[in-house]
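Tokens in:
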């Protein structure tokens, strides 16, 4: 996701299962607090939420931590009027911007994740077909019961020990 954001995401940390006081995820400059564990690689709504919160991190770093407390205060359900520094319109703008960015990016990033999943090397189960015998060679191999012909499970290379088994 790094190319889509103007801040260094490698410094961002997050925590799961956090009671944020209002049941919603919360971002504060370099930290995201999720209320429950999720997997953004498998769950598109979780990805959307994460992208939304990341945009809050960007806003927070751009506007300064103090200004950003505004969102925390409002989300936490505190009486916004208690704090005269709270600019409600500013908060709504940040919320809108975060949602717009997440909406724009979710499908793009999701597609990339799906492509990565296709490219990821598939773990070959160390299992042989019926009638074959497993041989614990490098990469694993499946052989005929008399070991005359073996097929390497990783490379697919077939070796013959007897003439005529090709
Ligand atoms: Zn938000």
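Residues out:
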């Amino acid at each position: 996701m790094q190319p889509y954001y103007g801040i260094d995401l490698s410094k961002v940390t997050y925590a799961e299962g956090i009671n944020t006081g209002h049941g919603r995820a919360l971002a504060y400059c370099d930290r995201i607090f999720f209320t429950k564990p999720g997997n953004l690689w498998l769950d598109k709504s979780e990805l959307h939420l994460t992208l939304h919160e990341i945009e809050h991190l960007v806003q927070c770093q751009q506007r300064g931590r103090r200004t950003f407390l505004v969102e925390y205060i409002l989300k936490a359900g505190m009486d916004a009027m208690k704090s005269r520094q709270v600019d409600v319109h500013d908060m709504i703008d940040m919320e809108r911007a975060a949602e717009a960015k997440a909406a724009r990016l979710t499908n793009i990033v999701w597609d990339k994740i799906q492509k990565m999943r296709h490219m990821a090397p598939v773990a070959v189960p160390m299992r042989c077909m019926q009638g074959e015998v497993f041989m614990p060679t490098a990469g694993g191999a499946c052989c005929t019961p008399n070991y005359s012909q073996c097929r390497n499970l990783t490379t697919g290379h077939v070796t013959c020990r007897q003439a005529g088994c090709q």
